[in-house]
Amino acid sequence: MTYLMFFYSLNVKLIADRTKENKAMKKDAHSSCEHCPSKNDGIFCNMNLAELEDISQHKITNKYKKGQTLFVQGTHPFGLYCISTGNIKLTRTGIDGKESIVRIVHAGDILGHRSLFTDEDFGKTATAMEDTEVCFIDKKYILSLIEKNPSVALNIINKLSRDMGNAENKLTSLHQKNVRERLAELLLSLKTTHGTKEGNRWRIDLKLTREEMATMIGTANETLIRFMTEFKDAGIIEQEGKIIYIIDEEELLNWANIHY
Fold first, then answer.
1. How many Cα atoms occupy the beta-carbon half-sphere of 29 within 13 Å?
2. How confident is the model at residue 173 (pLDDT cuts 50, 70, 90)?
3. Lowest mean pLDDT among 83-92, 180-189, 249-258
């Protein structure tokens, strides 16, 4: 009962906060999908100009500050979220009240699609990790759009399939790999999604706390710090402030026990 009351009070507070934010937040209700910086990576990448304009007239674009919440675990979905810019973390709170990062999504990704089609409550909480721009499309319109445009349905299926594959890989990693291997694998994954090449090294353009990284690989904060130090001492990574650089990708692959 305590667990349910916690989420109920959290959801009531979220609704109140979002009402205040929506009044104060500068909205661009019909910002053009044609000029979206993530259009080519999104589910509407195959749409023509007229179709994009129609979507633009049926969506609302919101800007979220770092730490603001898009939706909370346990609430009901009313539409689809398309990320235009920024990074968002998806977290799940267990019955013990502990929060774990399940996934990090970025520009071009969508949120709420699984819950939308299963008509289930959100299984995770979505929180902006930085200033983020997200477009919201209500359920009725997105479902009608899918019926009329098979390419949108295929792109959503593609994202669902990749999400499932990533979830399976993460589960396998947690069961079959040690902490050192999981940390190396996490760094390689972040390089793929948020990496920028700088000469002979890769800069990871995502600032994560040690606590956040620890929850992502299922270990204690102290253990993560110990292995990060080990990686740095081995010359595999460097760190400047909160920015992580991968120096030796090949060796990191060996430590992650990944073979292509």
1. 4
2. confident
3. 249-258
